[in-house]
Amino acid sequence: MQAAQTTGLILGIESSCDETSAAVVERGARVLSNAVASQVRTHARYGGVVPELASREHLQNIVPVVRAALEQAKVTLEQIDAIAVTEGPGLAGALLVGILYAKGLAFALNKPLIAVNHLEGHIHAVLLEARMQAQTVAAPLLALVVSGGHTHLYLAEERDGLWRYRNVGKTLDDAAGEAFDKVAKLLGLGYPGGPWIDALAAHGDAHAVPFGPINIKQKPYRAATETSPRFLFSFSGLKTAVLRYVETHALRERIEARRAALAAMENPNAQDALPLCDAETLGLIASFQRAVIDDLLRKTVAAAESLHARSLIVSGGVAANRELRRRFTHEAQQHKLPLAFPSIALSTDNAAMIAAAAWPRLAAGEFASAALNADPSLKLG
Ligand code: KG4
Ligand code: ZN
Fold first, then answer.
1. Which of 14, 60, 301, 377 is most exposed, with minimal Cβ within 10 Å?
2. Per-domain residue ranges for the chain?
């Protein structure tokens, strides 16, 4: 009902981690703007996101980012039908900046406020782009959300106009992106580590170090989770195996030399690191990446087959990885499973995905109350 009366313009706001983003999306299908202010340079020198600094930067960025999103979309606040904001999961202080700003706007403009789960947003990044190209994604779909904070598998389908999710797999320790970031840091590379490892792995032998399959022992986890142990992930052991390799192959000195050389450069990137990496290090990097992708691929395909998924989505920051895209594309073809990734811009955190996920809620009139609060450990499904 509500949908027919509106033009379906949603202003999305995302501030769960280290990007402040605002976007205007029409009817969950047309991105009018998607402004992102990244804090990567602030956190890079600490090798990880510093929560207090993240909150402070969100506070500085939120007003200009929302203004930029409205300007690029050529719409005024009065023309917006609803304001959507990330409720969680994420950093409490960071989430609060977006939530308080969105609440203030909704109250001042007398417009509905819609709360969105960040993980649902990553799934809708793909659904949004499919709608933009007038494509449908066959349901039930299996979504692998793989980012710095999450490695989750969801079975999803639309019922009565709203999307329903069932969490069927997750990580027991580190998220895949976190493993990329920690291994990059261990090897003296920059932050966030994913793009560095992605670029450097292309120059190494992915089978130089025989990291084997990651199997989760069935027993201890059976009672603790409804998820089948076959679809559980764990990357902390692999990270420790990389550390052990560094120690047993006397790589420390080379790592410190690389770290110092990069620290002396202004804004170094993976291309600057390439001449600072020998074949042994490049082999270690490529083998680590191969082991992570092997594991994501094997468990995702097993879950898709066992749960009779009709299509596959891979989203989140790690979905930007080139080798991951190549291997998933090849494997999905072998299994005749339709596969979709977001564009690189919509793989990492952004507000367009939040505004897109909010569209079915606007259409159904499902709004957040004025008591909406940040939920740092919000679950999906
Ligand atoms: O989705 P995202 O922007 O933020 C979270 O919700 O966590 O994901 C960030 C994560 C970081 O761990 C980063 O290293 C990883 O995504 N990442 C990559 C690549 N680009 C970003 N990992 C592997 N390969 C990449 N090309
Ligand atoms: Zn994310």
1. 377
2. 9-137+346-364, 169-337
Mapping DSSP onto H, E and C, the string for the chain reads CHHHHCCCEEEEEECCCCEEEEEEEECCCEEEEEEEEECHHHHHCCCCCCHHHHHHHHHHHHHHHHHHHHHHHCCCHHHCCEEEEEEECCCHHHHHHHHHHHHHHHHHHCCCEEEEEHHHHHHHHHHHHHHHCCCCCCCCEEEEEECCCCEEEEEEEEECCEEEEEEEEEECCCCHHHHHHHHHHHCCCCCCHHHHHHHHHCCCCCCCCCCCCCCCCHHHHHCCCCCCHHHEECCHHHHHHHHHHHHHCCCHHHHHHHHHHHHCCCCCCHHHHHHHCCHHHHHHHHHHHHHHHHHHHHHHHHHHHHCCCCEEEEECHHHHCHHHHHHHHHHHHHCCCCEECCCHHHHCCCCHHHHHHHHHHHHHCCCCCCCCCCCCCCCCC
Q: What is the pTM of this model?
A: 0.94
Centre of ligand 1 from the C-alpha of residue 115, in Å: 23
Residues in contact with ligand 1 (CB, 6 Å cut-off): 17, 147-149, 177, 180-181, 192-195, 198, 316-318, 320-321, 348-349
Q: What is the pLDDT of residues 55-71, one digit of tens each?
A: 999 999 999 999 999 99
The pLDDT of residue 48: 87
CATH H-level, domain 9-137+346-364: superfamily: ATPase, nucleotide binding domain (3.30.420.40)
Q: What's the mean pLDDT in 262-291?
A: 97
